[in-house]
Structure formats: structure tokens, C-alpha cells
Amino acid sequence: MKKKKRTINPALPTTKKKVKKSSIPTPMEYVLLFNTCVITKEKVAEVDKVIDEKVTVNRARYESISNQVRLGANALSVSGSKNLFASVYTPFFDRYNTTPLTTNNTTVAAQPLSMLDVITKPQIGGRISGNNFFDTGRFGFDSGRFGQTDPFSFINLFGGGGAIPWYFIACVHYMECSFSFNKHLHNGDPLTGYTVQVPANRPKVGHGPPFTFEESAVDALKLMKYDRVTNWSLPFILQKLEGYNGFGYAKKGIHTPYLWSFSNQYVKGKYVKDGVFDADAVSQQMGAAVILKRMEDRALISIPRN
User: Fold this and answer.
1) Quick one: which of 27, 254, 251, 278 has its CA closest to 147?
2) pLDDT digits (tens, 9 = 90+) for 86-124
3) pLDDT band at 81 (very low <50, low <70, confident <90, very high)
4) Which tops the pLDDT comparison, 294 or 126?
5) Given 54, 103, 240, 256, which is the most exposed site by the fewest CB atoms within 10 A?
6) What residues contact residue 225 under an 8 Å CB cut-off, 6+ apart?
7) Does residue 101 contact residue 107 with C-beta atoms inside 8 Å?
8) How much is the average pLDDT of 38-62?
9) In this model, does residue 289 exceed pLDDT 60?
10) Which are the contacts of 220, defined by CB distance < 8 A and separation ≥ 6?
11) 26 and 300 in contact (C-beta within 8 Å)?
């Protein structure tokens, strides 16, 4: 009797799922971009002019807002005549982060949280969240501008918030209001009325318009829950500044001009209007990271890297 040949069906081809890379730069990428950032020689004077005439002269005002966010509306304002540059600058994280950390029933002194800890030890103190910490509104609230996994959620790391660095507020003021003190920090709408753009109908301060810049700014920063952030590291700051205008540039494979314009990190490519990208257009507005980089170069600030 002839034996039948045994046929073995070939194995079905296996397909590997492609892991979608986040368009948000990693902490290391942000630090590398900042450390290797070289400001265009012809633009240095222009950047310095903005720093001298728009940023440092208003430091007392920005620090007053930061204090009000952290300590409440009754926080003492810093006198505009006080010399704020008389002593060596201390990073805000080191200055205010004194709340002890409790883990495994053991209380230890609070330490600056390194990016390595955030990535490898998310179980300690709830140090990282799977989603961005914004809840509602324009800043990634309902509009989806921050609708991505966020590796920088530092809320409630040690049970409370630290002071918002004054230079971060200055950069937000620049990006949203072009340094005008007659506009809402939320979105650049005029202080003569409530905000119209998203987030609309702000601020909630117990009275109607007109509003002061300070009370509206405090409302905007609390709305974004920045009063609950404890680690104001360089990557965190850069990610939040980039997020103000979205991460569309990263999806195009270029570094956002909102951070890097006027430096070697940006050449060309710009959204000329909502949803319309021109690969040959060049941003004429200096980047916020460039301002911070120049301020560090001039020893006006020192931003913690982790």
C-alpha cells in the first residue's frame, strides 16, 4: 500500500505591530537641542534687545505673579524698585521644593527628580502619569493641542507645587501676548473683556471686566494647573512652551520655530495659517528657547536640567 505524503501547511506570516513614535521630543532630545543651540550671529543683538527691554525689566512683575499662583492672591508683591539681581540666582525648584517625600512608610528629604527616575521608577510617589495633566480648554484641554501621551506630568510629585520660574511666565507672555500687558495671558484677548478665544469666559476672579494683567495671568496659570507642578526642569519647560502651539512641526520632521527660530536648530518650514504648512516659509519671530538660551549665556538665569 502506497503511503500518502504528509503535507504540512506553511506557517502563517507573522506581522509585527509598528510602534508609533511620539511626536513629542524626549527629555534627552530637548536637553541636547538646547545645549547645542547656537544663536544666529546676526540675530544676537535683536535677541538681547528683547531680553533687556521686555524680559528682565519685568522680572519683578513675573515673580509677583508666580508668588500669587503659589501662595494665593494675598501674596506680597515684589517691589518694582528692588534690585532682583543683587544675589546669585537660585533655581526655583531648589528654592521652594522642601516638602518631604514619603515612600514605603519612610520619610526622606525631597530631592530633585531626575529624568531617569521619572522613566524607570514611575511607582515612587506617582511620579509620572500616562496622560497630559491638562483637563479642559485650549491648552490641550478639549482642543486636543496636547492630546498625546505626556512624559512630563510632574503633578503632585511631593504633595504640592513649586514656584513657576519667572522666565517661563515671560516666555508665555511673549508667545501669547507679544509682551503686551493689556492682554490676557490665556490667549492674547484684550483685558477689557472676558476671553473670547479658547479658553473662553476667563478669568474667574470674582468681578467683571476690565481686568488687571496680574489677576488674569494668575487665573490662566492656575487653569493650566501649573500651581501643582514641582519640577520645573529644562525639558519640562521646553515641552510646555512647544505645546502652546502644538507638535505639528515635529510631525513634519523639523524643529518648531516657536522654540528654535533664530538658531542653528531651525532653517525653514512654517504653518502660514491653521492647517496650511509651507515648507519654504521662514519664521521671522525669535524662538522662546533662543531667548532662554541667550539668558543662560549671559548668566541671567540657570535652568535645572532634571
Assistant:
1) 251
2) 333 333 333 333 333 333 443 333 344 443 343 333 333
3) very low
4) 294
5) 103
6) 133, 134, 135, 155
7) yes
8) 98
9) yes
10) 184, 185, 186, 202, 203
11) no
Give per-residue burial for 109-119: e unless 16+ CB within 10 Å, then b: ebeebebebbe
Q: What spatial distance separates the first Cα and last Cα of the chain, rounded to whole Å?
A: 78
User: CA-to-CA distance for 218 and 7, rounded, in angstroms?
Assistant: 75
**Which pLDDT band, with edges at 50, 70 and 90, does 177 fall under?**
very high
Do residues 107 and 100 lie in contact, with contact meaning Cβ atoms separated by under 8 Å? yes
What b/e readout covers 266-304, taking b as 16+ CB neighbours within 10 angstroms?
beebbbeeeeeeeeeeebeebbbbbbbbbbbeeebbebb
Grid coordinates representing 175 are 508667545
Question: Using CA atoms, how far apart are residues 70 and 164, in angstroms rounded to an integer?
Answer: 8
- What does the pLDDT look like over 2-37, one tens digit per residue? 666 665 566 666 666 665 566 789 999 999 999 999
- For residues 132 and 8, the answer to whether their CB atoms sit within 8 Å is no
DSSP annotation string for 113-180: PPHHHHHH-TTGGG---SS-S--SSTTTTSS-TT-S--TT--BTSSSS--PPPHHHHHHHHHHHHTT-
The 8-class DSSP code of residue 229 comes to: B
Check residue 190 and report its DSSP letter: B
